[in-house]
Design a protein that fits this description.
- Helix content is about 35%, strand content about 30%.
- It is an alpha/beta fold and about 400 residues long.
- The protein has two domains: about 5-250, Ribonuclease Z/Hydroxyacylglutathione hydrolase-like (Metallo-beta-lactamase, Chain A); about 255-400, 3-Layer(aba) Sandwich (Rossmann fold), CATH 3.40.50.360.
- Helix 8 crosses helix 12.
- The model has no long low-confidence stretch (mean pLDDT about 95).
- MU-OXO-diiron (FEO) binds near residues 83, 149, 168, 231 and 232.
């Protein structure tokens, strides 16, 4: 069971947050032992309430129950739908059932999604990019921010609060002990820095070029932003606004962390594991300590973390067994995720082992090259040729690698 936090996050702006420790796999895919939050915001004006996003579908009854502890649902004038993914939109039908007079505001594409997902036909008012709604002394400016993380995503700037409500963008996994980032201690800030990168790589990474475009677009609006309020995780205000925007810009641009090195490997009977040990020892001579993710008969790495590390890696070593004359299935899956989610500007070394027929190296080379990974080397070998592989590694790793150990930034 999760818990609920109700907080004042502006003069007349409130957050109703569900702190979810139960979801093991976000989107049914990403492993999140750190948990996640769903942040709904409520603006209180002289002319009624504006609700921004809700909670996931399984929490729809609880959402209304908690909302009603603090507000009268009959006072809700508008529901702003920033994004239709059901982790935010799931409680919409319950809110509408409690107050059918609510007008839903969102991207024009959201209308069809609401009607289909939830079998309701609300009063729906599409908002144009840059459109301003005036209500009870407040000006709400809506910005279309496509692909953060679906095409219909919008943000709202609440002018009088100097607050930008960003939905998935600037979000993080994890359940923070405090509302705002500047209230966290050093250790928790480090954890949330990691949670944000992991969330970005898992959820937003595929659309990273849109991060750059949308940040550029928002900056051209010349908004005075004192707070960034995402719908997942910790909130940002003061100096941390500038810091999180810069972090996001860097992630969107696909900037690597110098020296950051990731090894992902599969090993059926230990031959690949031995070669990975040799690679780790060799990397140590260059002062590089890689993050190692193994899929073997004894362990199965967490690919959500692997993708988070691979996103900013300068160097990536993919070592795999061959299986039925093809790439070992789990490695194929990992490589496809790396292609889908991470930037291509990495140095990649593929090491493929085979028993009776070498195919995995060529298959991965073709797959990675076709998808834009240009800085690529391949070593293919028959099981038992460890010394030969060592010589190859000694020759090729220095050419391939960046310099020194990774220095990841925390903000
Ligand atoms: Fe948090 Fe794309 O939904």
């Amino acid at each position: 069971m999760g818990d609920i936090a109700y907080s004042r996050v502006g003069d007349n702006l409130y957050m109703l947050q569900y702190r979810d420790y139960e979801t093991k796999y976000f989107e049914g895919l990403w492993h999140i032992p750190e948990g996640v939050t769903y942040n709904s915001f409520i603006l209180e004006t002289r002319e009624g309430l504006v609700v921004f996003d809700t909670w996931k579908r399984s929490l729809r009854g609880l959402f209304i129950e908690e909302f009603s502890k603090h507000f009268d649902v009959r006072d809700v004038k508008y529901l702003v739908v920033h994004h239709m993914e059901p982790d935010h939109s799931g409680s919409i039908p319950y809110l509408l059932a409690s107050n059918p007079e609510v007008t839903v505001l969102g991207h024009v594409l959201s209308k069809g999604m609401i009607e289909s997902f939830y079998q309701v036909k609300p009063r729906f008012q599409p908002v144009k990019d840059g459109e301003v709604l005036q209500l009870g002394g407040y000006r709400l400016r809506f910005l279309h921010t496509p692909w953060l993380h679906w095409p219909e995503t919008i943000m709202t700037y609440v002018e009088e609060e100097e607050a930008l409500l960003t939905c998935d963008a600037f979000g993080s996994y994890g359940v923070p002990s405090r509302v705002f980032h500047d209230e966290l201690g050093v250790e928790e800030k480090e954890r949330f820095s990691r949670y944000m990168v992991k969330y970005f790589a898992n959820i937003i990474g595929h659309f990273r070029e849109w991060v750059v475009k949308n940040i550029e677009k928002i900056s051209q609006e010349n908004l005075n932003i004192s707070a960034i309020l995402p719908a997942h995780g910790v909130l940002y205000r003061g100096d941390s606004v500038r810091e999180v925007v810069e972090k996001y810009r860097s992630l969107g641009a696909g900037e690597t962390v110098p020296g950051k090195t990731v090894i992902a490997y599969t090993s059926m009977y230990g031959f690949v594991s031995e070669v990975v040990d040799d690679a780790v020892n060799l990397l140590d001579k260059y002062g590089i300590k890689p993050s190692v993710y193994g899929f073997t008969d004894r362990e199965r790495a967490d690919f959500s973390e692997l993708i988070a590390d691979a996103y900013q890696a300068e160097n990536l070593i993919i070592a795999t067994a061959t299986y039925e004359a093809r790439t070992f299935p789990l490695m194929k899956e990992v490589v496809e995720l790396i292609i889908e989610k991470t930037p291509v500007n990495k140095n990649v070394l593929v090491i493929a082992l085979y028993g009776w027929g070498g195919k995995a190296g060529a298959e991965l080379e073709e797959l990675l090259t076709k998808n834009g990974f240009r800085k690529l080397e391949v070593i293919e070998f028959r099981a038992g040729q460890r010394e030969n592989v060592q010589k190859e590694l000694e020759d090729r790793l220095p050419r391939l690698l960046g310099r020194g150990n990774a220095q990841e930034e925390t903000f």
